[in-house]
Amino acid sequence: GNWLGMLGGGQLGRMFCHAAQSMGYKVAVLDPAAECPAGVVADLHIQAAYDDAQALDRLAGLCAAVTTEFENVPAQSLERLAQSVRVSPDSRSVAIAQDRIAEKSFLARAGVPVAPHAAIVQPGELEQAGNELFPGILKSARLGYDGKGQVRVASRAEAIEAWEAMGRVPCVLEALVPLASEISVVVARNAQGQSVAYAPSLNEHRDGILAVSTVEPQAPKSAQAFHQAAARIAQDVAHALDYVGVLCVEFFVLNDGRLVANEMAPRPHNSGHYTIDACISSQFEQQARVMAGQPLGDPSCLCASVMLNVLGDVWFDAQGELREPDWTRVLGVPGAKLHLYGKAEARRGRKMGHVTVLGATLGAAREGAREAAAALRIPFDV
Ligand code: ATP
Ligand code: MG
Ligand code: MG
């Protein structure tokens, strides 16, 4: 088996294809779209629904192992695949990460600090929620990403109104916590239980979407303690899940210096894209290595980097007309590495690509990122 399988044809699948193919593996992608970022670079694109039994069996028959690039893949699909092929991460880990209620209680049971919260499933649970949860954020338990499916609520009355407006879907109500910063850690863990953690990235969000990730090989003195703690917690979480594959854990660093886990993603993560250009082995290479049963790669980070997400907004000028961004100017920035995902149509808020600017020092990487951001007319104030 030289074939590796991917459920989902988005940009994470595409970057996986690149990494796996460069090591000589062939990749089969299952995605219902005729043209998708991973489908067009895969060795085989099986165009079918994620729950198409025949397509799943074909993928399982072809591949040595199968993974997924998005959380919301139907659990039954993973279970069907698992009957005949190695699936990593397993459906249990994915199920926990798919559901904020399960995720929060799993983290709390594993001894990982989380923000004060309550599960809201039944009418009445909002009436009984503790006062310490207001002001808070009401987050749908399922299907939320990039800040979608969540509402900030100042009071209990607002929360009740918001929950009604959301159609009373299961939610987590979380206290709004005072953020000093947000960081995330990507870990890779193999079937033998060995794991490696990447240098944490410092993340800045805009409108609920990751905008900028900054990473230094060596954290500044003031951040070393919580970077180490975050890396340890992320590896502990992977161990507690008996996780096989690549996992990302997002953290809040609170104003008082405490670290709380926010959520996890059972796959490579947007904040880990810097690993493609700045690390010995990228998060996608690790994913391929783990699936193929090969040794874990070296996660060492070789230089400082600043990653800018490139959203579809960048294609619209001040008049709202579509025009191609100035890639020549971006590519002219010292240390800039451009990654475009091959999406046909630019839409506002849609992730179209990213630019990682590398530097011998963080200052140099920031200077380059400022130039790249100016070329793309993205605000940059890091
Ligand atoms: P992702 O795209 O990362 O999966 P998501 O839609 O699942 O995003 P969260 O990560 O839960 O959403 O929240 C999005 C952002 O909202 C966080 O990165 C943080 O900036 C802010 N946020 C979320 N929860 C809280 C909280 N309890 N207190 C303060 N800020 C919060
Ligand atoms: Mg999320
Ligand atoms: Mg998040």
List keywords for this structure.
382 residues; 9-stranded antiparallel sheet; binds adenosine-5'-triphosphate; globular; 3 domains; single chain; Rossmann fold
Brief summary of the model shown:
Helices cover 31% and strands 27% of the residues.
Protein described:
The model has no long low-confidence stretch (mean pLDDT 96). The protein is globular. The chain has 3 domains: 3-87, Rossmann fold (3-Layer(aba) Sandwich); 116-175, Dna Ligase, domain 1; 179-376, ATP-grasp fold, B domain (D-amino Acid Aminotransferase, Chain A, domain 1, 2-Layer Sandwich), CATH 3.30.470. Strands 10, 11, 12, 13, 14, 15, 16, 17 and 18 form a 9-stranded antiparallel sheet that branches. Helix 1 packs across helix 10 and helix 2 (53-62) crosses helix 3 (75-82). Strand 14 and strand 15 (259-265) form a beta hairpin. It is 31% helix and 27% strand. With 382 residues, the chain is of the alpha+beta class. The chain has 12 helices and 18 strands. Adenosine-5'-triphosphate binds at residues 115, 137, 139, 144-148, 174, 176-177, 179, 182, 205, 208, 250, 262-263. One magnesium ion (MG) binds next to strand 15. InterPro entries: ATP-grasp, ATP-grasp_carboxylate-amine, ATP_grasp_subdomain_1, PreATP-grasp_dom_sf, PurK, PurK_C, PurT/PurK_preATP-grasp, Rudment_hybrid_motif. It catalyses: 5-amino-1-(5-phospho-beta-D-ribosyl)imidazole + hydrogencarbonate + ATP = 5-carboxyamino-1-(5-phospho-D-ribosyl)imidazole + ADP + phosphate + 2 H(+). One of its GO terms (molecular function) is 5-(carboxyamino)imidazole ribonucleotide synthase activity. One of its GO terms (biological process) is 'de novo' IMP biosynthetic process. This is N5-carboxyaminoimidazole ribonucleotide synthase.
